[in-house]
Amino acid sequence: MLVTGGAGFIGSNFILYWLKKYPQDKIINLDKLTYAGNLENLKSVEKNPGYFFIHDDICNSHAVDLIIKNYQIETIVHFAAETHVDRSIMDPSPFIKTNVEGTYVLLEAALKNKVKRFHHISTDEVFGALPLGSKTKFDETTAYDPRSPYSASKAGSDHLVRAYHTTFNLPITISNCSNNFGPYQFPEKLFSLAITNLMEGKKVPVYGDGLYVRDWLYVEDHCRAIDLILEKGVIGETYLIGGLTEDIPNIEVIRRIIKIMGHNEEMIAYVKDRPGHDRRYAMDWRKIKEHLGWQPEYSFDQALEKTIAWYKNNQNWWKDIKTGAYQEYYKKQYQH
Ligand code: NAD
Ligand code: TYD
């Protein structure tokens, strides 16, 4: 199996999950190690004979072709991407390059080398925004309406993946998941930023009025869903993966984190809103439940407790990250 972007948040959780569950399998992790890639996440499998790391760019067509050919790759699980909306607003160009062009390079190489399965990891953000207070949810038939450079680049990649199936018969599956949280998340995203800021005695920045809703998914539940899609998913199909939260606004998520961590509301700082900020995401994941028997294992509060405990017990991991270039990003994003 070739995993792209395996040094990132979800990719590394997936590799750890997979090698634990299927110790006989062989995984090649192809990652460019951008600011978001961190081999520390994979320390525990570094010496595992079933795991091999290759430092390269998915846009490098020669390298990608050779890797797939030489390692006789059967399955590709494609996580590699630029992933942060705020960074895509600062500079969209790496998003177009990696997310659109990089996906194209992988598709071409997969086709040429007759890969048996190309599984593409995508996001609910391709569907745009839902109104606050409505009961509407995204499902597999929702029309695409991306509104940020990030979501537009992911939408472009989804369209390419589907086109390679329809036009060239490439055996693909796609999953669009909601916002993940859990261990090894780069501390620029809401949960990891809030938890680590509080441990550093810093306030938690809340964009705008804080009444934005995300459908929170624990990363381990997500990994199990991908596993099921690889095992039982129907070629050409798309599956939506979401969590168990029912419209919890950001401000409420932050209050829960603050409470569990023994702080008070003085630690909340309202900051300038994100331009084009999507109001609400909500996922109808009945298809994957009914067809493949998946559902989240952890309640939101259980997963939140586990996540907070992980960041408390792994302070070196995020303290190493929150230095250097991270500080420049933080200043640019939050101190206008
Ligand atoms: P991440 O930003 O934590 O990690 C991305 C990884 O991709 C990094 O290791 C990075 O080095 C690597 N990468 C970036 N550009 C590359 C390139 N050109 N070549 C090779 N490697 C490259 O991302 P994540 O949060 O783990 O997200 C993984 C996937 O899941 C992405 O496709 C993302 O769009 C999707 N997704 C994430 C979320 C979420 O909440 N995190 C939600 C929905 C969908
Ligand atoms: P984020 O984790 O960046 O994921 P996405 O933008 O892909 O949904 O943000 C989740 C929500 O939290 C989103 O509504 C923006 C908001 N947010 C804040 O209020 N403060 C922050 O510091 C960050 C990073 C996000």
Please explain how this structure is put together.
With 336 residues, the chain is of the alpha/beta class. The chain has a domain at 2-183 and 215-245 and 282-298: NAD(P)-binding Rossmann-like Domain (Rossmann fold), CATH 3.40.50. The protein is built from 12 helices and 13 strands. α5 (149-168) links the parallel β5 (117-123) and β6. The longest helix has 20 residues, at 93-112. It is globular. The model has no long low-confidence stretch (mean pLDDT 97). Nicotinamide-adenine-dinucleotide is lined by residues 4-5, 7-11, 31-34, 36-37, 57-59, 79-83, 98, 102, 121, 123, 154, 177, 179-180, 186.
Form type: globular
Q: How big a fraction of the residues is strand? A: 5-15%
CATH topology of the domain at 2-183 and 215-245 and 282-298: Rossmann fold
Bound molecules: nicotinamide-adenine-dinucleotide, thymidine-5'-diphosphate
| CATH fourth-tier homologous superfamily of the domain at 2-183 and 215-245 and 282-298 | NAD(P)-binding Rossmann-like Domain
Question: How do the helices and strands line up, and which of them pair or pack?
Answer:
Elements (H helix, E strand, L loop, with lengths): L1 E3 L4 H13 L5 E5 L19 E5 L5 H10 L4 E4 L6 H6 L2 H20 L4 E7 L25 H20 L3 E6 L2 E2 L8 H10 L4 E4 L5 E2 L2 E2 H14 L5 E4 L6 E2 H11 L7 E4 L14 H7 L7 H14 L1 H7 L3 H10 L2
Parallel strand pairs: 1-2, 1-4, 2-3, 4-5, 5-6, 6-11, 7-10, 8-13
Antiparallel strand pairs: 9-12
Helix pairs in contact: 1-7, 2-4, 4-5
Bound molecules: nicotinamide-adenine-dinucleotide (NAD) and thymidine-5'-diphosphate.
